[in-house]
Write a structure and sequence with these properties.
Strand 8 (149-154), helix 4 (157-166) and strand 9 form a beta-alpha-beta unit. The relative contact order is 0.13. The chain is an alpha/beta fold and 334 residues long. The radius of gyration is 19 Å and the shape is globular. Helices cover 34% and strands 18% of the residues. It has ten helices and 13 strands. The strands form three sheets. An eight-stranded parallel beta sheet has the order 11-10-9-8-7-6-13-12. The chain has a three-stranded antiparallel beta sheet with strand order 1-4-5, with no helix packed on it.
Length: 334
């Protein structure tokens, strides 16, 4: 099997015949052809199979009202006592609403509400407790005037169902159907679905993760899960994919995925990238404290945008929004 990674460009000197990537802000005129057991090779875009080019170039449809032709920011709202970066900060409705209002005002077009930490080593939260941490908060956000899209970050169908009933409109399944397959049926009533790759569970995922080829293995997994979503009656146009940086990956695995992020455009879905404050940012940047990893997190987020990532999942909305505005102004002029 061959895989086709577009070489994304944003230079204003765009050659004749260059193609727009995913209907967005980048273009490409070459692709890297990858396959297991063979050396990569470059080909002109015109030599790629027509079905591959169709997926790579088709504008991504709006999801939950979000324009996928420009980068979107998803603000992280953890209603947990034990998240790795901000655990315990937003467990009350008042604190959660205040933070959501700050993030929406700073430029977040999505608020991602999570009630179960998936940091390495974390334990599973009972369904009833996870619902109690998330559904009332989502209802409070809507009652408090939050008009941004709201996603529920969960692995569990009952939690997702309660969140949608409370006013969420996107299901962010951080296990991509592998933890609770019933979440497929729940997601049919959502305006959007995100499928994230993770190897193992939070308790075990960083215990010597191994892949034959991390880039192609993650791609194959996500391709299979997108097909499962379609089989459950969820249109591909409503699905986002997330390679799951830090979820069952070593530093080398994370860097390989980030350097080759453009490959995932071949799935025909928007790409969600979550790198905010993660351990590898501290490893490379020399910062042990998660809250002090903002500069490195923003740098990696912009590298993702330079490869066409449509959604950035971040803790630090204003800092990301400002950096993104500058990046767009000096590169693509938008």
């Amino acid at each position: 099997m061959e895989y086709f990674r577009p070489i994304p460009m944003h230079d204003p000197a765009r050659p004749a015949g260059a193609l727009t990537l995913a209907g967005g802000w980048l273009w490409f005129d070459r692709l890297e052809v990858l396959s297991r057991g063979a050396a990569p090779r470059l080909i002109p875009a015109a030599e790629a199979p027509p079905d591959v080019l169709a997926r790579l170039t088709a504008p991504r449809a709006p999801i939950a009202g979000l324009d996928m032709g420009r980068p979107q920011i998803m603000g992280i709202l953890n209603t947990t006592p034990d998240s790795f970066s901000d655990g315990g900060s937003y467990v009350t409705h008042e604190a959660a609403l205040a933070q959501a209002q700050l993030m929406a005002g700073a430029g977040a077009s999505v608020i991602d509400v999570g009630g179960e930490s998936t940091r390495p080593g974390s334990l599973e939260v009972p369904v009833t407790e996870e619902i109690a941490r998330t559904a009332p908060v989502i209802a409070a956000l809507r009652e408090g005037g939050i008009e941004a899209a709201i996603s529920i970050d969960t692995r569990k169908a009952p939690v997702a169902a309660a969140a949608l009933a409370a006013g969420a409109n996107i299901v962010n399944d951080v296990a991509a159907f592998t933890f609770d397959p019933a979440i497929r049926e729940v997601a049919r009533s959502a305006a959007g679905l995100c499928l994230m790759h993770a190897q193992g569970t939070p308790q075990t995922m960083q215990h010597d993760p191994h892949y034959d080829d991390v880039l192609l293995d993650v791609y194959d997994f996500l391709e299979e899960k997108v097909a499962e979503a379609e089989g459950a009656g969820i249109p591909r146009a409503q699905v986002m994919v997330d390679p799951g940086i830090g979820f069952g990956k070593t530093l080398a695995h994370n860097l390989t995925l980030l350097r080759n992020l453009g490959l995932f455009h071949a799935l025909g879905c928007p790409i969600l990238l979550g790198v905010s404050r993660k351990k590898f940012v501290g490893q490379i940047g020399g910062e042990a404290e998660a809250r002090r990893r903002v500069p490195g997190s923003v740098a990696v987020a912009l590298a993702g945008v330079a490869q066409g990532a449509q959604i950035l999942r971040v803790h630090d909305v204003w800092e990301t929004r400002q950096a993104l505005a500058l990046w767009q102004s000096v590169t693509v002029g938008a």
